[in-house]
Amino acid sequence: MIATSLMDAFTLGSRLNALLAGLAWAMMFCTTSVAAESPTDVFPGVSWETRTPAEVGLVTADLEALAKHVGGRGCVVRHGYLVHTWGDQSESGDIASAVKPIISTLLLMAVQDGSLTSVDEPLAKVEPRLRDLNNGKDARITWRHLASQTSGYGLKDAPGDAYAYNDFALALYYDSLMNQVYRQDGTEVLRQQLGDVLGFQDRYTFDAFNRQERAGRLAISVRDLARFGLLYLRQGRWKDRQVLSPELIESAIASPIPATLPRSAGHEAEMLPGQRSLGGGKNQAPIGPGVYTFNWWVNRTDTAAQRLYVDAPSDAYGAFGHGGQRALWIFPSFDLIVAWNDSPISDHDASPGNPSSGINQAARIIRGAMERRTRVAIEGDRWLINGQPIHQGSPAEGRLMNVRMVNATYEDANRPDFDAPANTARFVAAIPNYVAAGVRGFTLNLQGGMPGYEGAVNTAFRVDGSLRSSYMERVRQIIEACDEAGAVVILGGFYQRQDQHLQDEAAIRAGVANVAQWIKGSGFTNVVLELANEFPHDGFDHALLRSPGGQLELIGIAKRVHPELLASTSGMGDGECAEEVANAADFLLIHFNGTSVDAIPGRIEALRRFGKPIVCNEDDKTGAAGAAAARQTVKHGASWGYMNEAVNQHFPFRFDGPADDQQVYDMFKELTSPR
């Protein structure tokens, strides 16, 4: 059965090859079963397990600076461990509007268990009085409208036509969900659905004041609020239980209202008799379109193209109350959560494009707390790490000797049985072995590479160009492991056969901006950018990616977002680089797949006039030919990169260090060893 299915899937030429592939597949899963525990497997028990900041790669002094800046009480969680606290951790207090994503999570749980058919179900099904309100206008209000602040409730706007941060609509949302869907007291619903499951340690109640005054306002401790954040950070999983499906988690954080949606003019309309507010008015926050989804604030851009959190990764998101006085902040790129309460910060709504807001200052401190050990730079045509030439004193001094490992973060939406995290973990474990052999750079790609069969769906991008947290988590693990090992990551953006999964060229541009922001906001100092792999390739669907002019535009976008980021894009296997690209790029990326060893010196010589580092980051020659190509490349003043197509790139992927190809890695060692 294994041989037959693999032969069908990969169109193998013989039953023997299929059987061998099947055996490799089986061996891969045997390996998976003994993989080391990942940080994503760590969850708190009755109380949080603790680690020092240094043990999880954080700088204590920066966390102390964060506590001083934020004030009140708070905590920081990384890799599932409680690593820094300030103030009384057990104190339960009102979190104001930071409660909103919790209400929306309970909504999604009702959809998951079938109590509701969809978030697009009209609220009038459970609140029939809406059918005749305002001549039937409010009959069209859905749960999605309430979760996105676009219901138009109590206003003249039709549902979905305008944004209004509306606490009267929120009260309708809470009351309808608890009284008509769950048919229980709100605190009891919270206990059953989340409190007992996540193991809240301290007092919590949806009656933060009292039941007669603003029911639905949640009192909770910061350390319990962080547990809720960890549920989202782990894609809805808690220990061995999938509490909320990854698809629903994804919908909650990836469905922002359009940036072009207008804000309500605020013209009042009739509400249901006795309608209360959860605390504020009907049209409060001046921001929201483009950056608001299911009551979460996400780090995207508004209609003026201003990013909400200019100093945070593009995948950061959070819940904020009273303008930032109460907060739950989730940083998937850091595998980190920050929760606080009773802070003097109250300028969240002033954050778009504004690095001086208290919220953005906090983001900058958090980013600075990430301990980075490897800083890459360029001096003339040489590569430096931490101010010193790479491979100092060796024949390859100043050259970035690298290996293409794009499928170390691989996934295939059509192969749900493939264990992507285990695949990444195997590569991470092998990084020290490659580095010991002289490798100082690894090429990754957010859309991977050719896995040896057609039809794979492997992309870190959503259709609109935003980044998928589950994919970026694997990328982050590799970058941080490389940082620890003193290695550089050449991070590629787009790959032929995969770019069609972005809906249009606007999504491509947004994707570049999001990647640059992700690198910047993550504080990575060992990453350089490859916009596209072999950009002239006719396998790209979007014309923007196939032309030198398009690559220039994309390099410009990346540099505007992150001016310090070293950026380039790669050509085809002929070892050539388009002149326009060579002039715009910080370094020249070439491929030698289709270039003979004898032709390598001439290809390099033709590019030396640009005075920039020349990096081959893809050559599929193996054995003696690969070793000869490496020697010739270094001899003539360029960096060489190996692509072991059969072993590292084609499914099932193997990462065995120098054993991948002993002749090539012996040459790596020879070229990078001091004379």
Write the layout of secondary structure elements.
Layout (H helix, E strand, L loop, with lengths): L1 H9 L4 H19 L26 H11 L2 E6 L2 E6 L6 E2 L5 H13 L30 H6 L18 H16 L3 H13 L20 E2 L1 H12 L3 E2 L2 E2 L3 H8 L38 E2 L2 E3 L18 E5 L4 E6 L4 E6 L16 H11 L7 E4 L2 E4 L2 E2 L12 E3 L15 H17 L4 E5 L23 H17 L2 E7 L10 H18 L4 E6 L10 H4 L1 H14 L5 E2 L10 H6 L3 E3 L9 H8 L6 E3 L6 H13 L5 E2 L2 H5 L12 H11 L3
Parallel strand pairs: 15-16, 15-22, 16-17, 17-18, 18-19, 20-21
Antiparallel strand pairs: 1-2, 1-11, 3-4, 5-6, 7-8, 8-9, 9-10, 10-11, 12-13, 13-14
Helix pairs in contact: 1-2, 3-10, 4-6, 11-12, 13-15, 18-20
Shape: elongated
Poorly predicted residue ranges: 1-36
Query: The biggest beta sheet, please?
Result: 7 strands, antiparallel
SS summary, helix count: 20
**Strand content range:** 5-15%
Average pLDDT reading: 93
- Which class do the helix and strand fractions yield? alpha/beta
Short overview:
With 675 residues, the chain is an alpha/beta fold. It is built from 20 helices and 22 strands.
Describe this entry's structure for a reader.
- This protein is of the alpha/beta class and 675 residues long.
- The chain has 3 domains: 2-28, no CATH class; 54-368, Beta-lactamase (3-Layer(aba) Sandwich), CATH 3.40.710.10; 386-672, TIM Barrel, CATH 3.20.20.
- It is built from 20 helices and 22 strands.
- The protein has a 7-stranded antiparallel β-sheet, sandwiched between helices. A 6-stranded parallel β-sheet has the order 19-18-17-16-15-22. A 3-stranded antiparallel β-sheet has the order 12-13-14, with no helix packed on it.
- Strand 10 (326-331) and strand 11 (336-341) form a beta hairpin.
- The relative contact order is 0.09.
